Give the backbone structure.
Amino acid sequence: MTMFRILVIEDEEIERQALVRLLKERFSHSLEVYHASNGIEGLQNYYKYKPTIVLSDINIPGMNGLKLLAKIKEDNAQTSCIVLTSYNYFEYAHEAIKLGVENFLLKPIQDDTLCNSIQQVLDTIRHKANNDTQASQLVSKMEAMKPILESDCIQGIVENSTSEELKRVFRLLNIIPKDGFAIVLKNVKGIKSVALRYIKEIRELGYYCMKDNYYGYLIIFVLSVKAIDEDERMQMEVNLNRFFRNHKSVGIGTIAKSVDEYHQSFLIAIQQMGNAITLKASTQQVDVNEVFDVKRFCETLVHDFVKLDAATIKEKIDSFYMQIIYYDAHALVQVLKDFQTILICTVNKEFNAKITIDDLDCPITIHETTLYSNVNKQLQMLVENLFFMTRNDISSHTLVRKAVAYISLRYTNTITLSQVASYLDVTPFYLSRLLSTHLHKTFTDLVTELRIEKSKKLLSEDKKIKEIAYALGFKSQNYFTKVFKKVTGITPMEYKQKV
């Protein structure tokens, strides 16, 4: 149980000792009891022990009891005060009530009456502490949820959710924004720390700021609960340049005048990436006449197919998505159809395949109502589908041929999986998986097979076993013999005698 402190201030020593003894007996598990014999000592002990409850007589030397309680309440209004007084000082009751004392008790007082009064104060303190704890826990939970809500809010703005849906999230965030604008940053090295410093400064100026990662980009929204005037706009533009002018991949949206315009601000921020940093009012419209070179993009994508570079493929799809997301519905539908058709044709050409849309498990499907909300997901699923289909085509897989050719030229020397992967510009993991998928062999199996076949030829030419072992990259003659027998079932000497 939590222990609280009580300070007893009574100038009559016998009464003071009796009060202290009573409280220690009745509240041994809940109160630490301190005492003082006059007002000055009482104030000193208050500052020293910081009691939760003060029990004081009014008529005490050194300082009037009510004056003492006034000073205590001034220091900490949460301190609970109980006044003890005789009938002769009942006229002070009104002043005591004005000070906010918890109870006004008349002397002489029964022990049970006093203890009941103190117990009531303790119950009130505990109840308030429990409420404060619950409120604190609720605040903590809301703070923990804040990044999730902000992420949902940004996603809703980007994917053009209804204003009612956005306002519902804003209510949960305890903000009713009016003006606001978007900032879009390419998530490159060092940009996050710059963005966090910018957000800190903007918040200190009184604006609400939320951020989230979105398909390889950092999206920031700066929001104001009132209209942003011209002086504020100019100052914000200065701040934006101060933080981001040295970063090329930055786009600033126009100042939206309502929640309905936040999506437009985001689209303009995307379109402005790489341009001079300016912050304008919401008069600029998105130009959707820009033509994206889908054919060239598909060619670079298939090049990454050949390298099995899944990470780069995902990054490029994310970038493609961010470049077309501001298209109107008609233009977006057309570019998605073109992308699907051209990508299939490019894959067929590279891998000598005959894939059609009907062969796909996840072709792009167009639904006007959810068009903007699932574009990236559909792009990723289409590419993954084609990626999986082409990687099984060993007969035309360029990377497999290059890997085998490289190993065939260098297997007589010390060679590692990492060396071959580095030459092909892929990771060792991808190369290992590629060989396993298409050749059903490990890298070690492939190198060993080539070395053993070569050793058979050299053994038939009457070469010494020791010379053959070192010529083919084996660490020792014994190791060569062990590997040879494991593969062929006989030793090199037995094979030599046989041929």
Summary: The first strand starts at residue 4 and ends at 9.
